[in-house]
């Protein structure tokens, strides 16, 4: 379960919106519906009204044994599902590196966090990381009353959890607001339990929308400068109408204290997740069966695309809805039901929110030609809960820093590759080469180059020659490794690789 420090570190805060009357001269300022937003003289009335519904959560459990310096999830694995390169990775790596000289065995922990009542019957929303693996959960109200809570369900993908307490009287509850209408600059307040102090109110504005911090496939955080600290995790972000537009979840800080960069799960996501947890105890998501990735400017240039947009398919699960609809590796998905897919998470969220069994229309580019496919969305397996939003003669590829070889029985045995595996295998990577800088390792397979199949080193050489002939500075290859399949751009022009 999350330790006290982790529960506190993973705390963030979205914002409040204040609207004032238009000026007396009738002139309307620019903005949504021409509202004027000004700071209120005081937040006291709003805070007094909402404080009774915000609770302090204490979760008791046990942390599994870990090796020295090891992070939860395995050696070198960042916590909270953060992938390498996340802006929060260094911070959490530093924190988890201070776990003691030898890691020790399993040990009891107590995590402190926040939560808020969404139903007078006793339903409470908080963060999954606050109550994860907890054996006992205690909820304390500002009135001083405390209750043992039952865990109704959790959704690690969005870091939302739902609790239930039994009380003799109906509880004060907060209402959900509409995070989709919240704008950058809107006033908000956060209420929570920073550093175990309880009942703390802070105010600020929404700093940004739709933030992707690398926490998962459904990242769409509200960013706020509202003071959020350790223990605020799971508390509400409230707008000036007194409605919850976010669940405070994460902060960016190297000290564990607030520096004005907090993140909150928007109510557009949190509300639907909480409702599903209440109805069935888990979240049911749509499933296509594709692994997708961002189209970087390098990849766009290498593929001859005018814009770096869309979701690039790096693999297709066998017998999945995508496979049955004819989606192929290398396809670039550009629209879903007529709406543009600008980034992979646009597709991930849209598919996840689609009811299983429903048919969707996907627009895609294949070999530069537009196509339309109509897969029937399946159900994402609960154990995955990830949007699908992964000795022959050797030939050198000096410009890339790769040494490649055709697949032979000895090489298949050497690298543990299946008999039906296709492609050309990496048997060497030059230090500090373009390939090394992009993470290639011996045993990796290259199966495609610029959307053409690669079955030998010669196929890759031909793709490089063709790219140079067309005046391109890079090619895009599909690398398959133990970590999955990923399209990677590699420079091929002499001035880049010399």
Describe the protein.
The chain has 498 residues and is an alpha+beta fold. The protein has 3 domains: 45-59 and 108-283, Thrombin, subunit H (Beta Barrel), CATH 2.40.10.120; 288-386, Pdz3 Domain; 402-491, PDZ domain (Pdz3 Domain, Roll), CATH 2.30.42. Helices cover 17% and strands 32% of the residues. The chain contains 12 helices and 28 strands. A 7-stranded antiparallel sheet has the order 5-4-1-2-3-7-6. The longest helix is centred in the middle third of the chain and has 14 residues, at 267-280. Mean pLDDT is 76; it is low at 1-36, 66-103, 385-398 and 494-498. Residues 1-17 form the signal peptide. It catalyses: Acts on substrates that are at least partially unfolded. The cleavage site P1 residue is normally between a pair of hydrophobic residues, such as Val-|-Val. The active site is at 129 (charge relay system), 159 (charge relay system), 233 (charge relay system). One of its GO terms (molecular function) is serine-type endopeptidase activity. It holds the Pfam family Trypsin_2.
